[in-house]
Amino acid sequence: MASIDTAQSPPRSFSFNDPVVRGVIYQVVVAVLVVVFLVWIVNNTAINLKAQNKTSGFDFLWKTAGFDISFTLFPFDRTSLYWQAFLVGLTNTVLVAAIGIFFATLIGFTVGIARLSSNYLVSRLATVYVETIRNIPLLLQLFFWYFAVLKTMPAVRDSLALPLDTFINQRGLFVPKPIPDEQFVWVWAGLAVALVLWLVLRQWAKARLERTGKRFPVFLGGLALTLVIVGLVWVVSGASVTFDPPVLNRFNFKGGLELPPEFVALVFGLSIYTAAFIAELVRGGIQSVSHGQTEAAQALGLQDGDRLRLVIVPQAMRVIIPPLTSQYLNLTKNSSLGAAIGYPELVNVFTGTTLNQTGRAIEVIALTMLVYLILSLGTSAIMNWYNARVALVER
Amino acid sequence: MTDIAFVRSEIEKAQPAPRSQTGLVAWMRKNLFASVSDTILSVIAILFLLWIVPALYGFLIGRAVPPGGTVEQCRVENVGACWAYIASEIEFFIYGFYPMAEYWRPNIVFAMLALIGLPLLWPSAPFKVVNAILFFVVFPIASVVLLSGGMFGLRYVPTEQWGGLLVTLIISVVGISLSLPMGILLALGRQSKLPIIKTLCICFIELIRAVPLITILFMASIMLPLFMPQGTTVDKLVRALVGVTLFASAYMAEVVRGGMQAIGRGQYEAAAALGLGYWRRMGFIILPQALKHVIPGIVGNFISLLKDTSLVYIVGMKDLLEAVKTKNDAIEWASPTQSVTGYIFAAAVFWVLCFSISRYSRYWERRLNTGHKR
Lengths: 395, 374
Prior knowledge:
The complex is a heterodimer of chains A (395) and B (374). Chain A has 12 helices and 8 strands. Chain A is α+β, with helices and mostly antiparallel strands. Chain A has a domain of 201 residues: MetI-like fold (Orthogonal Bundle), CATH 1.10.3720.10. In chain A, the strands form 3 sheets. A 4-stranded antiparallel sheet of chain A has the order 1-2-3-8. The two termini of chain A are 50 Å apart. Chains A and B meet through helix 2, helix 4, helix 5, helix 11 and helix 12 of A and helix 2, helix 8, helix 9, helix 13 and helix 14 of B. Chain A: It is found in: Cell inner membrane; Cell membrane.
């Protein structure tokens, strides 16, 4: 009789048919190939750089950039350093992305809801918008807005006057600039206090609803509270806002806020393009909530507003929000197309001008990619956290 | 009892529905003027249409200069689209700087694409295997030989001279045909149980998806020559192709992975229980179901790829968009509506391509719908 030990664990002979053995072999082969490939690339790069007499390293960031940037949020001139140019590009990217996201969301939700409208004309117009915009490359749309629309605007002297002291011409959009005086900090403080009180009010109303069943109009109450507090503070502190309108001088507008045509075209193009995709998400999200949910909510006796707010919208949002964030991310990445129409964002300032001047291709491209990588990974981390929070709890 | 005067033996015909329930009036009442807010919206929409339709008609047709017109006709005040400009430059938009005497070569490639490619898209066309071999093996080789020449007595045409729609189509077709298999491999790698392969695939996919296509194209056009051994030069078109394909395959991998995750574990286990090896399990059981789930996603990626080919303009390639933009600055056709007309033309070309792809995917969705959908 064989011993019990051998019967329980038969001798594991080495066999190529064993999936575990094969798995190890495959991985070793792949790992070796990848390492060899990387070594080959690094070696080639080192030889190539040496042959071209190029140095490497990030020390160039502390050298004088020596170029000017047409649109900056903070002072930048020829004597500034490369890392400041990097920062200018980064802030310009973030600025245009933030404004683009705001308008894209606004247009996208409007069009998405319009596509579901029972009104034939409205839903058809929304469909035409989505199908037209989605199927035309963004770069082409940017060129259209920039070269075919904004660049063919009249010269400064014959600017088109729009309402509210706004002018549009070849050099961009000129809007009045609000100038708050020193007392205006108090108004901001008042606004902050009011918003905190709004949150407190919401908590209180919720607690009361659960205790007594009585409702309290939180939104209207909160709005009234904010308006009263801000209004009172404004009057008492004597704060005031003066508007500095753009005035046509002999050659150009003086005063006001000047938005260059590159910026306007980029915001226009990005918002209109991304809005078409957001509209489709919104439509899909609302349609994904089955009609039974509406009927069930009605059967529970919920009012119209509550039905939307408590039953339909939360379920639709669970479907809409994850792809919505990736659309926001796409918009941020697409803002790099601003480089093609001369908007000084990260790719233009850094991968364009800086790379050309310093020749540090690897460092510059790596740094640019790192910025987008951090933005993306950060967003997806937040998204995963949100998804875990709203995911259906299944037993 | 028998004095019943009249007994109906047939059912009387139903009366037509009341006038208010049928016809145009009822349709309008239901779809346009159902409520006060609906009526307001409809009025706004009608006013908008009354403004935009005549304006568009006037610009595109009414006041436009038809093909064959002269540049002087385009240079008047308040002129519409200058189609004469498009018509006179159409060859540049299609072929770029490709030598005029050799236009027949790209023409043959276009014809081959239509003759070999379209039957492949048509499910009931016969000889699928032969057709696929023709398209994936013979067609690429024949196209490269024909377009670049340098053998069989054909004049050599460097890729710098290729341009316009030709380049746009080359990049899209190559990108589409390479990115799907690469994406499937990456997705399989990401779902694999082997830790090293899985990590490599995840890193590649996430890195590519996190950065904009422009930076990848910059990397391909600036850094690829640095990575190669000294003395080797990589053709500019190939650099762009590498960048676009890598980018698209990472997105494709995520779509395919989504489809694979939508398939129940039972399918994997049943395939394993049948004693099939890994590649047969994937090829015969998992992937056919997974890919069917994600056709809209795959086609969406194809459409984005087609649109994204316009970005190669930024790294100095001469695609359709570049051709249009170059000619928009041409002095001989300088007129108030020159650039608008050019961009409308390019937009129309892209729109027709993308829209027909998306219609085609609807067709496949219906065809593959095996009734499992709720």
